[in-house]
Amino acid sequence: MDLRNISIQTNSGTLWIEAATQIFFSYGLGLGVLVALGSYNKQRTNCYRDTLLLAVFNEATCLISGLVIFSVIGFLAKTEGKAINEVAESGPGLAFVVYPAAVAQLPFSRLWSVLFFVMLIFIGLDSQFVALEGFITAFVDEWLVFRRHKKLFIAVYCAISYVIGLSTVTQGGMYVFKIFDYYSASGWCLLIVLFFECIGVSWFYGADRFYEDINKMIGYYPNQFWKWCWKVLTPLLCMSIAIFSLVKYEPVTYKKYRFPKWAECLGWSIALSSIVAIPIYAIVFFARQTGTLKERWNTAIRSTLNRSEQNESMLYGESAALNDDSFS
């Protein structure tokens, strides 16, 4: 084992971005998926237990998948007499080139090939279902006009997504895919969004209040460790990886092809379209407040949820009604 290669890889910003992105997508973090699906639970659902179970099963699945992937790559590298980094690169080539080559050498190769690609189809469909549900739920809960015309809204959204997706299956679609994958689907977007989510919940809404909410749901307090994660560890980790990756920034490439400057600008525009929405909304919300700068700041960061005026049964009753409506 060449420790110098390991040192070089760990100093790469791309490696840390890819690792963080894998965690984000495997848990559905920053995409609204967990919030949307969790909104269908009953009030007394043990969300703490479910979260721990999700973490255990997710990490176990990732570990098993990693063992399978590297065993296949190692096998192909051994049989072809090549280095591992010469066999395949991360991305679609791993699923559509390397794996089929390995599956073809198994007994009953046609059966395994069919099962493998059927699995890929179901993974893609399942990912789209939950991602779509997270996006749709956010819109229909925020604006009544989308709730009244929910089917039409979903149809329009799916049509637009389909047209955008068509660009990735053209002759140069792999280059379009790389731009979307490198700048928008992974990396800085999710890191920045998750940073502000943690800050919004743990500092503005309040970690102690959130802690009390969980206690009201499950009947006991989770470990204090999680409060420190919400307030310090997770925001610090997100910003550290984001800053490190920006310092070690490497332009997007596909094999030996280096994308032109206009393609990089397009990719950064896609990435910033999600990121800049947060400070723009904060500035507009702050400007709409009245009073001195200090009074505006205090009003802007104060939670609008007033416990003394909440009627718990009505609150959860309305939530259940909204969830039932979203299924219809």
In short:
The protein has helices spanning 3-10, 13-27, 33-38, 47-80, 84-87, 92-103, 109-142, 144-148, 150-166, 173-184, 188-218, 224-247, 261-275, 277-288, 293-301, 312-327, and strands at residues 253-254, 257-258. It has 328 residues and is an all-alpha fold.
What does this structure look like?
- It is a single chain.
- It contains 16 helices and 2 strands.
- It is mainly α and 328 residues long.
- The chain has a domain at 276-328.
- The chain has a two-stranded antiparallel ribbon with strand order 1-2.
- It is globular and about 70 Å long.
Keywords:
328 residues; mainly alpha; 16 helices; 2 strands; disordered N terminus; disordered C terminus; SNS_sf; transmembrane
Detail the topology: elements first, then pairings.
Layout: H1 3-10, H2 13-27, H3 33-38, H4 47-80, H5 84-87, H6 92-103, H7 109-142, H8 144-148, H9 150-166, H10 173-184, H11 188-218, H12 224-247, E1 253-254, E2 257-258, H13 261-275, H14 277-288, H15 293-301, H16 312-327
Antiparallel strand pairs: 1-2
Helix pairs in contact: 2-12, 4-6, 10-13, 11-12, 11-13, 14-15
